[in-house]
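Troubleshooting entry. The earlier prediction with PBG gave an output that would not parse, so I re-checked the input for stray whitespace and re-submitted. Clean input:
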Amino acid sequence: MAFPSDRPRRLRRTAALRSMVRETRIQPSDLILPLFAVSGRGVRKPIGSMPGVAQLSVDLIVEETKTARAAGVRSVILFGIPDHKDAQGTGAWDPNGPVCTAFRAIKDAAPDVVAIADVCLCEYTDHGHCGPLARDARGQVAVANDQTLPLLARAAVAYAQSGADVVAPSDMMDGRVAAIRKGLDEHGLTETAILSYAVKYASAFYGPFREAAESAPKEGDRRGYQMDPANVREARREALLDFQEGADMLMVKPALPYLDVIAEVRRVSDLPLAAYNVSGEYAMLKAAAQNGWIDERRALLEVLTGIKRAGADLILTYSAVDAARSLSDLA
Ligand code: PBG
């Protein structure tokens, strides 16, 4: 007579057994490293709220990309900090700005790395919002959705022409995936993929990033375009819309407070799914580690495993290189 096993510990006894029955594995190639590009040479400006992360000039972006590649991380996503900002964010599509210059340099020095461009205007506008502001029909000042779309498409085309393999719109305007797809196709950039930040919440966890990218809104907040943290049905709708508009991959952001959302988007979509382990999540872990309150390496791998177990295929993380190295040490 056979009995169901009442002793799950049998399979936890040795490292080999645990490895044999492990359900979730992270590989360095699952990880995407975000980098902040500034102009100049030999420039490394550390970001106070993100220990270990710095704004880098293009030469150092290339070095960092090669270091990441050597650790097994095969993709980077670039954000730019321009020298000048204006109301429209015109620096976003400057072919000689730090981001476009960095893509050309990366394609030259590390051609087998997947180069991803974050597409948003908040780093480039003097008011810090994700598109130009205008008065709506009620006289309220807000980001003008339809005026923003061609500007995003223009930026996406500039990045793709400079060598970006993937463009990743993070602005949360309605209809931007379709607008970007159309813009790319009209310029013959039919092979450039779109990774849509489809499900992006208005989160307190972006705080350190806004220091890094110098992109905090001067007035107001982003709750008029980013999602309400309370909503998950809306996440399904956003994911479906971006799928219908032609997104090749989807993203949920942030990651840790939204693991249920990752699981839900995984359930309703077959597209590759990324999750962004954002700046505030990074800062929390670093701060605890620096105080000796937590084992950083173990906590980091546990966080990444949790995000992947929830359903993410890919994880954007500022700790990509450390995590990749820990994974190969463990292997
Ligand atoms: C641009 C953008 C933001 C992040 C990625 N792209 C900030 C924001 O929406 O304010 C956040 C990334 C992070 O916190 O690590 N819109």
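This one parsed fine. The first helix runs from residue 15 to 20.
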